[in-house]
Write a structure and sequence with these properties.
The complex is a heterodimer of chains A (228) and B (109). The radius of gyration of chain A is 19 Å and the shape is globular. In chain A, helix 2 runs parallel beside helix 9, helix 4 runs antiparallel to helix 5 and helix 11 packs antiparallel against helix 12. With 228 residues, chain A is mainly alpha-helical. Helix content of chain A is 74%, strand content 0%. Chain A folds into two domains: 175 residues, no CATH class; 46 residues. Chain B has 109 residues and is mostly helical. Chain B starts with a helix and ends with a helix. The chains are: A mainly alpha (228), B mainly alpha (109). Chains A and B meet through helix 2, helix 3, helix 4, helix 5 and helix 6 of A and helix 1, helix 2, helix 3, helix 4 and helix 5 of B.
């Protein structure tokens, strides 16, 4: 029988390889926040309060580009809606926990932590204290994200603007979705939403960021219909 | 104003995390809705990538010689074959910087 702390440690070790991408991403985010003209405290606050890398970048990028708060907030909601999917999968393993514990552990659900802990849950479904694995992976990712954001904020104030660090935004997102390129349906959906975004870019309040994903989702819906 | 937005965006993000675990019965999601949700990254990220590469700061299309296009292509090729996040971003940035630097040189001559 493994103790709570042992399971916590397994969570830490399972997620450790992912830190190789999380830490540079955090540094890039911090630097971009400064590059976009936000003050250090505000940039850092998004890491603490929103705690969702891609959505934080989009949020600051949209606000700095003159988007309305409504558009910026809605796009954060859209980007982070994938957590609903994670929650639906994890709820099966967490249903015995008290409400307080569920509320606490929820804050630490992120992509990489979900991936490794869900794997662990599937293999060890009969064991007690399994949620400590999710805490181990989640807290590790959280700590690294906070620290790397702060490092990035310092670096961002040193990097000269001529280097065009803003270009790291599309590059980072290319790295995030590169594996989906291998699937034809995803590739089509990507092209549709990407071209739609380019076409609608000058729509008022930067609403392209909501219009084009919707067009892309509609294309996905059509593909799903055709597949049947 | 920005602070308020940060708190609201944070609250909504937290709702997406805890909603399925505490409040909602996960069975309200039918299979189709889950499938559609799995496309979310593939529709959101290209909506940022494409304009970020193809448009300039003023929202006009860039020319075919723009370093951003070659930086992005490098990142896609490297990412596709290496499946390595850091390598993808760093080679994309490096090729972009090399091209900017080369263009500066040519402009000076």
């Amino acid at each position: 029988m493994l103790s709570k702390f042992q399971i916590f440690k397994i969570g830490f070790f399972d997620v450790a390889p992912h830190l190789l991408s999380v830490i540079p991403f955090g540094i890039i985010f911090g630097a971009i926040g400064i590059e976009l003209g936000f003050d250090p405290i505000m940039t850092y606050a998004t890491s603490l309060i929103i705690f969702g890398g891609a959505s934080q970048i989009v949020f600051l990028q949209l606000l700095s580009g003159g988007a309305s708060s409504l558009v910026a907030i809605t796009s954060v909601g859209v980007i982070n809606s994938r957590h609903l999917l994670y929650g639906a999968v994890l709820s099966e393993y967490l249903n015995k926990l008290s409400l307080i514990k569920k509320l606490f552990i929820s804050y630490f659900i992120v992509d990489q932590g979900f991936a490794v802990s869900n794997n662990y849950f599937k293999k060890n479904s009969t064991q007690n204290f399994n949620h400590y694995h999710l805490l181990g992976s989640g807290v590790t990712l959280w700590l690294c994200w906070q620290i790397s954001t702060i490092i990035g904020i310092f670096l961002g104030s040193i990097v000269p603007e001529a280097l065009g660090l803003k270009f790291a935004i599309p590059l980072t997102f290319i790295a995030i979705i590169i594996n989906e390129l291998r699937k034809l349906d995803h590739l089509i959906v990507m092209l549709v939403s990407g071209l739609a975004a380019t076409f609608f870019y000058n729509a008022p309040f930067k609403s392209y960021i909501l219009i084009s994903p919707l067009i892309g989702l509609f294309a996905a819906y059509l593909i799903l219909k055709l597949k049947k | 104003m920005t602070w308020t937005s940060i708190f609201i965006a944070g609250f909504i993000t937290y709702l997406t995390r805890m909603g399925m675990i505490t409040l909602i019965d996960k069975d309200i999601f039918n299979e189709n809705f889950r499938k559609i949700l799995s496309y979310v990254p593939s529709v959101v990220f290209p909506s940022i990538i494409f304009p970020g590469v193809l448009l300039d700061d003023y929202g006009s299309l860039v020319t075919i010689s723009d370093p951003k296009i070659y930086g992005a292509l490098t990142a896609i090729v490297v990412g596709y074959f290496s499946r390595n996040v850091i390598l993808t971003i760093s080679t994309g940035l490096a090729s972009y910087w090399i091209l900017i630097f080369a263009q500066l040189k040519i402009a000076m001559i």
